[in-house]
């Protein structure tokens, strides 16, 4: 979907370099912080990303793979690990034996809740580093950045 906001021309090479360095620094800091949430966690960051869509209800392995943007065999391998840890349960869909349905167990819901809480605490601390009058602007810029990355990424 095209963006209606005006553009001001192509960025200079220097602007691109500064932007790339800033993006890389943000990405590295987020990975470090998310890794810290895994110290006492039951699931890894990539496993937690598969649990998020399941919080809304059961879905097929194919639907989950599509939602996560991952290949179905990758999702299946991860789900096997999560199933062994009793975080998810997989079963054939009633009426369609070819489709495997996945859902969170009660333990899986607790694991996801704890993971979310740890991540929110880190996010709250980071946002708290900004003065209150800048927080909405910081959030808006991040939303715009996420949209720009999504819109310019190869499909």
UniProtKB/TrEMBL annotation:
Which PROSITE patterns does UniProt cross-reference here? HTH_MARR_2
Q: Which residues form the HTH marR-type domain?
A: 16-147
Name the domain of life.
Bacteria
- Pfam families given in the database record: MarR
Its name, as the record gives it, is MarR family winged helix-turn-helix transcriptional regulator
Instruction: Supply the source organism for this entry.
Output: Saccharopolyspora rosea
């Amino acid at each position: 979907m095209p963006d209606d906001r005006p553009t001001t021309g192509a960025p200079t090479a220097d602007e691109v370099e500064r932007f790339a360095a800033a993006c890389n620094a943000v990405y590295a800091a987020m990975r470090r912080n998310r890794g810290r949430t895994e110290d006492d966690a039951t699931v890894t960051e990539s496993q937690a990303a598969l649990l998020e869509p399941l919080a809304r209800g059961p879905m097929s392995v194919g639907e989950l793979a599509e939602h996560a943007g991952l290949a179905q065999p990758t999702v299946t391998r991860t789900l096997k690990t999560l199933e062994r840890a009793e975080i998810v349960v997989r079963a054939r869909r009633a009426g369609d034996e070819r489709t495997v349905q996945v859902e969170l167990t009660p333990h899986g819901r607790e694991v996801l809740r704890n993971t979310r809480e740890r991540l929110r605490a880190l996010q709250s601390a980071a946002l708290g580093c900004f003065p209150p009058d800048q927080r909405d602007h910081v959030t808006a810029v991040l939303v715009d950045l996420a949209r720009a990355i999504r819109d310019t990424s190869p499909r």
